[in-house]
């Protein structure tokens, strides 16, 4: 659904699926989605795993369902002192403006309760941006698997203490086990898919790249605005736990959507929306965010959320000092990023027994292609051909990058090919628009086709259950957002909403090669499709 139309459709949207304006999404559902409710339940098991709370379903904007936690993600704890005097603090700190915009990808946790995992990997990714290292999405399932739930994931609804996530990250980094890129083990809010996508233990061990040593982890205490500003002014981004109250800016129908304020008046005894459904400022749950700056003139902190780029201000928000000083639960930050430099220790060094390798693990060719890409080396055509659905190359699927499209011979009309965008990367984030009002930041598949001059081509893509878009540009176009926007303008098909097919008509003035791209405006939209080209 296109975001620009939401204001016009608000009354109708409130009635979708039987919802009304009085409905509170904090109320538990009768059954768990997918029937997967196997989070640790005994106190000992929860303490060992760092588990926290239960999933409280929450809908921040239409079509997006996520999990808040029933308990804070960070317990009260003393802060580590930073060598910075409060009277030397600048009036404002904005890491988004300084180095995050145009670098970091806005995360989307979907229906899982993995806000801590997303905020933690985003904190490491922010350090890549700050240090001007090549940007890589870091694998949330690998972080979760190493630090919380080794073996097969049973569900993704449980939460995780921020302190436990950073403690485990430090312990594993000190032992030489670093996190792989998200491309090798991608995140999805489908635990069965994440289990299926898990690479062999040896591949996770071999291609780990990112971490943070335990000695390089700092903490911010609960309710301390001064300590949080101190950490931000020192250059750090803080993973922090906050409550989410009803009607204060967390949801699209709030007049201050994306700008969070303390509840006034607060709910009595922090009454939850389960227990006080008529309380206008009831507590919906708790959430972990990445705080990236502050503005003294507005008395607000800036933060990066993990609910996709359609939340708030393109995935970012602000939260007032009063919420932090009254309800903030504290958090953690990494002072320095650890990057792989040498061979890690043996797999069994100080770790529990590794889970058996899954039969669906990517083969050696796929892993070698990933390693070459991570090192900035050219990937051979043989590697791409064998790399599987997450990479470019198979004749039955499109290429995974603008620079390496799959060649689609047009031998007869119509020519039809099947593909799948799941697992493919998004190369250009919020910068690709094709001259429209939308951004195309979903997983993409690229096809190279040879077209004849003054021939009308019908290019149709039919998705399986998601909103799809299709666009095209001449093959000689530079693989940069500005150049692509200029060339695909006018060669875009993306009707408003729905999961129906999209059709583009293209009549080139001269014969030559074109790149056809299957994409979506929704960063969470991906899956199988068929591409048909006729003339």
Describe the structure in brief.
With 535 residues, this protein is an alpha+beta fold. The chain is built from 13 helices and 23 strands.
Total DSSP helices = 13
End-to-end separation: 31 Å
CATH class (first level) name of the largest domain: Alpha Beta
CATH topology of the largest domain: Cathepsin B, Chain A
Q: Give unreliable regions as ranges.
A: 1-49, 79-83, 342-395
The number of domains is 2
Describe it for me?
The chain is an alpha+beta fold and 535 residues long. It has two domains: 1-74 and 88-361, Cathepsin B, Chain A, CATH 3.90.70.10; 398-534, Jelly Rolls (Sandwich). Helices cover 21% and strands 21% of the residues. The chain has 13 helices and 23 strands. Strands 4, 7, 8, 9, 10, 11, 12 and 13 form an eight-stranded mixed beta sheet that branches. The chain has a five-stranded mixed beta sheet with strand order 15-17-22-19-20. The protein has a four-stranded antiparallel beta sheet with strand order 16-23-18-21, with no helix packed on it. The longest helix is centred in the first third of the chain and has 16 residues, at 115-130. The radius of gyration is 23 Å and the shape is globular.
């Amino acid at each position: 659904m296109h975001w620009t139309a939401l204001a016009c459709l608000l009354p109708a949207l409130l009635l979708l699926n039987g919802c009304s304006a009085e409905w509170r999404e904090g109320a538990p559902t009768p059954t768990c989605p997918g029937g997967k409710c196997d989070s640790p339940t005994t106190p000992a098991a929860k303490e060992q795993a760092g588990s926290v709370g239960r999933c409280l379903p929450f809908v921040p904007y239409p079509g997006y369902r996520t999990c808040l936690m029933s308990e804070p993600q960070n317990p009260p704890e003393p802060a580590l002192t930073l060598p910075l005097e409060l009277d030397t603090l600048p009036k404002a700190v904005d890491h988004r403006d300084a180095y995050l915009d145009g670098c970091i990808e806005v995360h989307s946790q979907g229906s899982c309760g993995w806000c801590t995992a997303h905020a933690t990997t985003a904190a490491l990714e922010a350090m890549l941006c700050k240090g001007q290292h090549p940007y890589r999405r870091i694998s949330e399932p690998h972080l979760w698997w190493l630090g919380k739930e080794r073996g097969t994931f049973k569900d993704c609804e449980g939460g995780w203490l921020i302190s436990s996530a950073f403690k485990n990250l430090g312990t594993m980094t000190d032992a030489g086990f670093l996190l792989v890129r998200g491309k090798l083990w991608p995140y999805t809010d489908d635990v069965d898919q994440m289990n299926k996508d898990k690479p062999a233990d040896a591949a996770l061990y071999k291609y780990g790249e990112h971490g943070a040593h335990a000695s390089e982890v700092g903490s911010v205490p609960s309710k301390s605005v001064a300590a949080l500003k101190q950490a931000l002014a020192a250059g750090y981004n803080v993973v922090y736990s906050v409550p989410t109250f009803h009607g204060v800016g967390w949801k699209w129908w709030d007049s201050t959507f994306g700008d969070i304020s303390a509840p006034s008046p607060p709910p009595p005894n922090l009454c939850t929306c389960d227990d006080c459904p008529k309380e206008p400022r009831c507590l919906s749950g708790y959430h972990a965010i990445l705080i990236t700056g502050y503005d003294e003139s507005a008395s607000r902190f800036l933060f990066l959320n993990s609910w996709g780029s359609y939340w708030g201000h393109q995935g970012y928000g602000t939260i007032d000092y009063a919420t932090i000083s009254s309800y903030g639960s504290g958090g953690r930050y990494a002072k320095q990023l650890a990057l792989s430099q040498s061979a890690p220790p043996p797999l069994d060094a100080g770790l529990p027994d590794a889970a058996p390798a899954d039969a669906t693990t990517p083969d050696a060719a796929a892993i070698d292609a990933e390693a070459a890409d991570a090192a900035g080396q050219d990937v051979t055509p043989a590697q791409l051909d064998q790399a599987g659905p997450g990479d470019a190359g198979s004749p039955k699927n499109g290429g995974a990058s603008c620079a390496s499209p799959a060649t689609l011979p047009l031998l007869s009309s119509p020519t039809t090919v099947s593909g799948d965008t799941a697992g493919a990367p998004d190369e250009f984030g919020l910068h690709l628009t094709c001259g429209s009002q939308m951004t195309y930041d979903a997983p993409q598949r690229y096809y190279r086709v040879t077209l004849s001059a003054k021939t009308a081509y019908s290019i149709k893509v039919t998705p399986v259950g998601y909103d799809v878009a299709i666009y095209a540009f001449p093959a000689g176009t530079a693989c940069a957002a500005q150049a692509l926007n200029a060339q695909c303008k006018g060669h875009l098909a993306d009707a408003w909403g729905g999961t129906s097919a999209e059709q583009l008509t293209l009549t080139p003035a001269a014969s030559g090669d074109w790149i056809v791209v299957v994409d979506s405006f929704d960063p969470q939209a991906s899956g199988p499709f068929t591409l048909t080209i006729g003339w």
